[in-house]
Specification:
Elements (H helix, E strand, L loop, with lengths): L2 H9 L7 H12 L8 H21 L4 H30 L4 E3 L5 E4 L2 E5 L16 H9 L8 H4 L3 E10 L2 E10 L5 E9 L10 E4 L5 E7 L2 E8 L2 E8 L2 E7 L3 H8 L4
Parallel strand pairs: 1-8
Antiparallel strand pairs: 2-3, 3-7, 4-5, 5-6, 6-11, 8-9, 9-10, 10-11
Helix pairs in contact: 1-3, 2-3, 3-4
């Protein structure tokens, strides 16, 4: 089961699992490597089990074995969190990172960036409607509402477009070059039509080659800009469409380009 869905179910009262099943979920998380543990799931499981077994204890003879067992799990939880913190500090210390983004959205762990837009702003205020060739093509292919950096597509540019369909997914891959700025790169645009995919859209890992990231808010959506050695990536989501834009420019110019998303 997807971790995010599992977490939401555990938070729901009354919860949908038996105490035995919750014990199994807890044991499974505690058996993972420290950097893979979901400490929030662990903490919720321990809280539920402590609470429910305390109710049983109050209604019957004290179950000392159960009490000791969950006190031990509390200790394991604290140890897991401390180990995880140590792993994160070692990983982050391995290279200099410039992170100007919410910790809820971007974290650097185990030598890569974890991204989770979660409940952040992912619904744009405005969309392109000026009849540009690229926008018209995307509209015809089924991308009715498109948000792209105007700095890249309002000037003179060349492009090569490939589109294809998979089950519940429409994909557009665009190679482009701006003649006015000499910036070139790729657009990767993915439209998801299956509601199950929307639980995971905006969650994933970014390459450890990047050493800078900045989060900005523009046109009603949160946008991430990654960079390393004049290689930049702009990443954002609008509703059920996910955008990756890779360009050959420095960090400051990538931020300026991202600020023109509309």
């Amino acid at each position: 089961m997807d971790q995010k869905i599992l977490l939401e179910i555990l938070k729901t009262k009354p919860f949908s699992f038996t105490l035995r099943e919750i014990e199994e979920i807890l044991d499974e998380e505690l058996s993972k490597a420290p950097d893979e543990m979901d400490t929030e799931i662990i903490d919720i499981c321990v809280d539920i089990l402590d609470r429910e077994y305390s109710k049983e204890n109050a209604a019957s003879k004290p179950k000392k074995q159960k009490i000791k067992k969950f006190k031990a799990r509390r200790v394991l939880l604290i140890a897991a969190i401390l180990i995880l913190a140590l792993v994160l500090s070692i990983s982050a210390g391995a290279k200099f990172l410039n992170i100007d983004a919410s910790e809820k959205v971007v974290r650097f762990m185990n030598n890569h960036f974890n991204v989770n837009f979660g409940d952040k702003n992912t619904d744009a205020d405005n969309y392109f409607d000026n009849g540009l060739e690229l926008i018209n093509y995307l509209n015809d292919y089924g991308f009715e509402n498109v948000v792209l950096p105007s700095a890249l597509i309002n000037d003179d540019y060349s492009m090569k477009i490939n589109t294809f369909s998979l089950e519940n997914i429409e994909k557009a891959f665009i190679e482009f070059k701006s003649y006015s700025t000499n910036v070139q790169g790729d657009f990767s645009i993915t439209k998801y039509s299956n509601s199950n995919d929307l639980f995971t859209i905006g969650q994933g890992s970014m390459s450890d080659t990047y050493d800078q990231v900045k989060q900005i808010f523009v046109n009603g959506i949160d946008v991430l800009i990654f960079n390393s050695n004049n290689n930049s990536m702009i990443y954002y989501i609008d509703s059920n469409i996910e955008y990756y834009i890779t360009i050959n420019c420095d960090f400051d110019l990538a931020i300026e380009i991202a600020e023109t998303i509309k």
